[in-house]
């Protein structure tokens, strides 16, 4: 019996050193964990780098780094791939021979397609971000790097087709000198449903712009930038103008399309429906038929009228002279008073008509100005110099209108305080 007990005791003797060895390893692991930084990754994608202090247990350190303890560090979406996966978004990778990009680009660059299908093309991260912020609805994104998509608001990408293509393919279809690797197909924005910036709405003025026969995309884009910068409440484009959503106009506009309401492709009969009550329409035209006759000699000496007259108005003049000979004048050319652009013309809500450099303003714009009590606005230029670029003329008139409205507001505030 004693031998049996002795044998059992000998068999159980190694258990104690093993337990002591495991305990020693555990304590050593805990000490190592205390000395090493702890990275906590929460389900929301927030990451906290934290080094527990001496004497603190790892569980306690993680608890202190929780949302109920220390505020976690915010990480941009591009650095948190877990957020992308949790959003449930998926993208397709275009294989060799994939024609989706070429098919879309061939069609979306056509104005009839844009007007029929209600789709537009936006290129570049900044322009796309501005469009998403204003409430434009995306349909398809083509991108060369996943980071470009991760920079966009995830809540705006649900239900959008995401297609990863080679950068060379985007470069082949891009209009930019330096392509940015992302293109977006959007539903054509509706100015009624857009959410324009609060600062833009706060600085909006009773000043409108009407574009008449503007054919140059670069000029129109620049004019839209000036309209947004001056605080125009609305921009109206009549039929005959270049499409406001053409890629070249969008590029020249630098985001102005999503800062000021734009109503495109209007008939002249519909223009008054978009004007506030009692609006006066002013025509920026220093080449009109009656400008030289109605301007003073002093104004002519300073070059306040231009030397050339538009061939289109020449045609009206000849036809009217023929009618006068037969005693049947149609009165096609309204007689509008001419004044310098820097005289007060903003006493009522004002709309400025800017005509294209080739065709000038239309007869319909002159008739609308006459019916609303408007005038011609002349910008003084040195004698012998041709008329100003339409984009430059629009900028001068719009910011002059802004200056007059600001002075009027200051005088009203001063009179009210007294």
UniProtKB/TrEMBL annotation:
Signal peptide: none
Keywords assigned by UniProt, alphabetized: Methyltransferase, rRNA processing, Transferase
Region (Disordered): 47-87
Coiled-coil region: none
SUPFAM superfamilies referenced in this protein's UniProt entry, alphabetically: alpha/beta knot (SSF75217), L30e-like (SSF55315)
Regions of compositional bias (Low complexity) in chain numbering: 54-65
Organism ancestry: Eukaryota, Metazoa, Chordata, Craniata, Vertebrata
Name listed for the protein in its UniProt record: Mitochondrial rRNA methyltransferase 3
A Pfam family recorded for this sequence: SpoU_methylase
A GO term from the CC aspect: mitochondrial matrix
Domain RNA 2-O ribose methyltransferase substrate binding: 121-192
PANTHER family: RRNA METHYLTRANSFERASE 3 (PTHR43191), RRNA METHYLTRANSFERASE 3, MITOCHONDRIAL (PTHR43191:SF2)
Family affiliation: Belongs to the class IV-like SAM-binding methyltransferase superfamily. RNA methyltransferase TrmH family.
UniProt entry tagged with the keyword Ion transport: no
One GO MF term attached to the UniProt entry: identical protein binding
């Amino acid at each position: 019996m004693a031998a049996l007990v002795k044998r059992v005791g000998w068999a159980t003797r190694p258990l104690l050193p093993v337990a002591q060895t495991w305990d020693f390893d555990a304590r050593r692991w805990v000490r190592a964990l205390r000395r090493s930084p702890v990275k906590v990754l929460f389900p929301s994608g927030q990451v906290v780098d934290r080094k527990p202090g001496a004497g603190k247990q790892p569980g306690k350190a993680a608890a202190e780094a929780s949302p109920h303890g220390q505020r976690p560090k915010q990480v941009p979406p591009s650095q948190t791939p877990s957020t992308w996966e949790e959003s449930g978004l998926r993208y397709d990778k275009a294989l060799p021979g994939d024609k989706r990009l070429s098919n879309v680009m061939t069609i979306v660059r056509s104005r009839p397609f844009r007007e029929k299908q209600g789709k537009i093309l936006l290129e570049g991260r900044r322009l796309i971000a501005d469009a998403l912020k204003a409430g434009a609805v995306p349909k398809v994104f083509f991108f060369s790097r996943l980071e470009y998509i991760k920079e966009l608001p995830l809540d705006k990408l649900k239900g959008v087709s995401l297609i990863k293509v080679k950068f060379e393919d985007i470069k082949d279809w891009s209009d930019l000198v330096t392509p940015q690797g992302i293109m977006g197909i959007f539903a054509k924005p509706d100015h009624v449903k857009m959410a324009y910036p609060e600062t833009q709405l706060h600085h909006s003025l009773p000043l409108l712009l009407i574009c008449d026969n503007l054919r140059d995309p670069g000029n129109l884009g620049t004019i839209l930038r000036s309209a947004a910068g001056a605080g125009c409440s609305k921009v109206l484009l009549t039929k005959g103008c270049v499409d406001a959503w053409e890629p070249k106009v969008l590029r020249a506009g630098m985001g102005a399309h999503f800062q000021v309401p734009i109503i495109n492709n209007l008939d002249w009969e519909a223009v008054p429906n978009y004007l506030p009550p009692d609006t006066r329409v002013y025509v920026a035209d220093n080449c009109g038929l009656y400008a030289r006759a109605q301007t003073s000699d002093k104004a002519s000496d300073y070059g306040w009228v231009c030397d050339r007259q538009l061939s289109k108005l020449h045609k009206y003049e000849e036809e009217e002279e023929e009618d006068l000979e037969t005693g049947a004048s149609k009165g096609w050319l309204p007689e509008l008073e001419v004044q310098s652009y820097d005289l007060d013309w903003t006493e009522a809500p004002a709309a400025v008509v800017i005509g294209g450099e080739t065709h000038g303003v239309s007869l319909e714009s002159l008739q609308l100005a006459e019916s609303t009590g408007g005038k011609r606005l002349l910008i003084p230029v040195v004698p012998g110099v041709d008329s100003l670029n339409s984009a430059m003329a629009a900028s001068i008139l719009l910011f002059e209108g802004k200056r007059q409205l600001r002075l009027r507001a200051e005088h009203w505030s001063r009179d009210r305080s007294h």
